[in-house]
Automatic annotation (TrEMBL):
Residues 51-149 form the Fibronectin type-III domain. This is Fibronectin type III domain-containing protein. CDD domains: FN3 (cd00063). SUPFAM superfamilies: Fibronectin type III. The lineage of its organism: Bacteria, Pseudomonadati, Pseudomonadota, Gammaproteobacteria, Alteromonadales. It comes from the Bacteria.
Amino acid sequence: MKNKIAQYLRHKSVSVLLSIRSKPKDLSRAIKLSLSLLLLLVCSGANAAGGIGSVWSTGSDDSAISVTWTVPSGNYNHVGSSYKVCYRKTPTLNVCGGVESYTAPNNFTATGLNSDTEYKFKVWCYCEKKNWRGKWKNAKWRKIGTYKQSTLPEPEPDVLISNISVVDVAPGASKYEASIDVEVTYTNPAAFEFVRTCYKKLGNMTSMNSICSKRDLPPSSWGSSDHGRGWLDVEPAPSGSIFSFGSLKQCRQYKVVSYGFYDGVDNGLKLGETNAHTPGDCKANKMGMVIVDDYSETILVEYAEMISYHYDGHLFHYLAAQYDQELFTAHKLMMEEDRVDIVQPKALMEYLVGSESQVWDNWQNENRLLEQRLTLDAYVEDKYPELYKDILDDIQEPEQRRKAR
C-alpha cells in the first residue's frame, strides 16, 4: 500500500510540474502544490518512536493478567476497529514474537499464564497522526504503551491471599496534578485494624518498604505526602478498598505498596506492590528516553556492552565518584526493594534516564564521549541511521508545531 501511495504522489508531482509549460500563469500555484506533494511523500514514511498513551493492569491471579489502556486522543485518532495486544514472558527481545491478539474494547485479559511469572505487554492502535499543520496523516499501527506485570504465586491453603492493582490513572490539568487509584483486596483470615498504602516516584531516595511497614514511621519520618512519595491509611479498610493519590507528576513511574496492620501489632503484613505510570504530555524529548522505552532489550544492551568496555567494567563506580555519591544509596534501595542491580550498566542507564538524574546529562556531555562519538545519540546515529532520523523527527515535531502557532 505504501509503495502504491508513493508511486501515485510521484506521478501527481510530475504531472503538475509539466502543466506549467501549458499554463504559465499557474506557475506559483503549481510549484506550491508540487512542494506540498513532495513534502507529503517524504514524511509518509516517518515512524513514531515512543508510546502515545499508558497501559496498566486491572487485576491478576496465578494464571491470568488483565490490562487496560488509554484511548488515543489529541494528536492521534483511532481509525481501526480494534487494538492489537502482544505479550510474552520476560526477559524477551521481541514481545510481539509471542502471543498476538486483537480486541475491540480497550481492555484485555491474558489467560493460561504461568504462575509467579513476569509478562511484558505491548498495546497498539491503528491510528493516524495530526501533523504540525493540523492535518491527519499516516494511518498505521502505533504503540500505545508497554507494561510489565507478574502473575501471583499458586495459592496455598489457609493463608492470606492479597493483591494490589491499579484501577485508574489520570493526567490532571497540569504537570503536578496527575493521579493514581489502586485497589487492595485480600481474603480471610484478615481482620486488619487499618490498611496503609504508600507510593514513591522512581529515583526517590526513600526506603519505602522499611518505613511503610512500621506503624508509626510515615507520620514521624515524612510529615506529609508530595509528588515524590507519600502514604494513606484507611480505617477500617475492607477488601476492595480504593486508595487515591493526587498531586503527582505527569509521565513518571511510581511504585505502590500496601500493608495491613493488626490491632496492637507494630509491623504491618505486606499485601502487595505494583507499578503505575502517570499519563500526560509524555512525548520523549531525549534520545535516551526513547531508547530506554522502546529498545531497552536491543540497542540499549548493545550500547551498555560497548561503553562498559571503555570503563573496564566500572561505569557505576566512575559515575558515583565523578557526579553523585547518592548512587550508592540508590543501589542499596533498588536491591532491597526491587531486586534491581544498578551496578550493571544496562540497569544503571535505565535508572538514570527514568529518574531524570542529572548524572545522565552530565556524563553524556563529557568532552571525551563527544569527541570519540561514544554518546548514546552518536551510537544510534552511526549504527542505525534510518532509525535515528525517525526518532529525531518525532522528537522535534512538537517544537515545529509550537513555532507554527
